[in-house]
Each structure stands twice: as C-alpha cells, then as structure tokens.
C-alpha cells in the first residue's frame, strides 16, 4: 500500500517551483518536498518576509539552521502538496554557494581565534611595559 501512495506523489520541476515566489503564491522546498505557504504567510512567527526570501527555492538549510520546534515541524506537514522532481535535485546545489561558505568559515576562524589572541598578546605587552616603568 505504501508503494501505491508513493506513485501518487505529484512531482514538479524546479522551473515550475521558481514561478511561485509572489504574494499570491509562495512555494518552497524543504528536504525535496514542496510546501505551499501562501496561506501561512501572516501566521509565520518569524514574519512573512523570511518566507518570501526563500520562495521558489530550497529553504532546507535555513529551516534546519533556525531549529524549528517539533510542533512547527508537525504543522509544516499540513502544507506539503508534492515533491521536487528527482531530475531537478542536482540543480539545488550551487558551486558558488560552496565557495562563499568556505570563505565565510575561514573568516570566522580568523575572527574567532587569531584576532582575540593578538589582542590579548598586545594587552599583556602593554601591561608589562606599564609595570616596568614603575
């Protein structure tokens, strides 16, 4: 019986999904499932602008990064109406985004460890010079 329900799932191409990013129709992708969130815009606790920014594309990473509650995940299931066609799944990964993420993570490492370490060293040297003068 599960096989029969899998066959009934309606698939949409990425091109079809990308057309639904306006006030009258907000579709987005989460884990290859399609959600029509048009009627949920005003109810979204994070504001409708968050959904508008993700409309017509894959919002999986942003959805997971926010850390939605179990209740939010259950509620989201009521908005599923189809899936991204398997042929379009490879189009979701963009090489340019990977490069940006790599650069961002290197930048974060630099600012989280090196800059504070240099600052601490500078303060220690200044303290030592100040104490040596007395």
How would you portray this structure in words?
The protein is an alpha+beta fold and 134 residues long. 53% of the residues lie in helices and 14% in strands. The protein has helices at residues 2-7, 14-18, 48-54, 60-66, 70-76, 95-133; strands spanning 11-12, 21-22, 25-30, 33-36, 80-84. A five-stranded mixed beta sheet has the order 1-5-4-3-2. A hairpin with a 2-residue loop joins strand 3 (25-30) and strand 4. The longest helix has 39 residues, at 95-133. The chain is elongated, with a radius of gyration of 23 Å. 12% of the residues are buried. Residues 95-104 have low confidence and may be disordered.
Layout of secondary structure:
Blueprint: H1 2-7, E1 11-12, H2 14-18, E2 21-22, E3 25-30, E4 33-36, H3 48-54, H4 60-66, H5 70-76, E5 80-84, H6 95-133
Parallel strand pairs: 1-5
Antiparallel strand pairs: 2-3, 3-4, 4-5
The strand count comes to 5
Can you count the helices? Answer: 6
Order of helices and strands: HEHEEEHHHEH
Q: Which stretches are poorly predicted, pLDDT < 50 over at least 5 residues?
A: 95-104
Strand percent estimate: 5-15%
Strand order of the largest sheet: 1-5-4-3-2
Compute the gyration radius: what is it?
23 Å
For the termini, the CA-CA separation is 86 Å
Largest sheet: 5 strands, mixed
């Amino acid at each position: 019986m599960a096989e029969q329900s899998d066959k009934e799932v309606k698939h949409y191409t990425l091109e079809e999904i990308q057309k639904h990013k306006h006030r009258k129709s907000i579709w987005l992708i989460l884990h290859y499932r399609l959600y029509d969130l048009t009627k949920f815009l005003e109810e979204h606790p994070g504001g409708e602008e968050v959904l508008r920014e993700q409309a017509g594309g894959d919002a999986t990473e942003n959805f997971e990064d926010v850390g939605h509650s179990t209740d939010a995940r259950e509620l989201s299931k009521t908005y599923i109406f189809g899936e991204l066609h398997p042929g379009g799944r490879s189009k979701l990964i963009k090489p340019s985004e990977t490069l940006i993420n790599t650069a961002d993570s290197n930048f974060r490492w630099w600012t989280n460890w090196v800059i504070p370490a240099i600052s601490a060293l500078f303060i220690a040297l200044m303290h030592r010079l100040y104490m040596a003068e007395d």
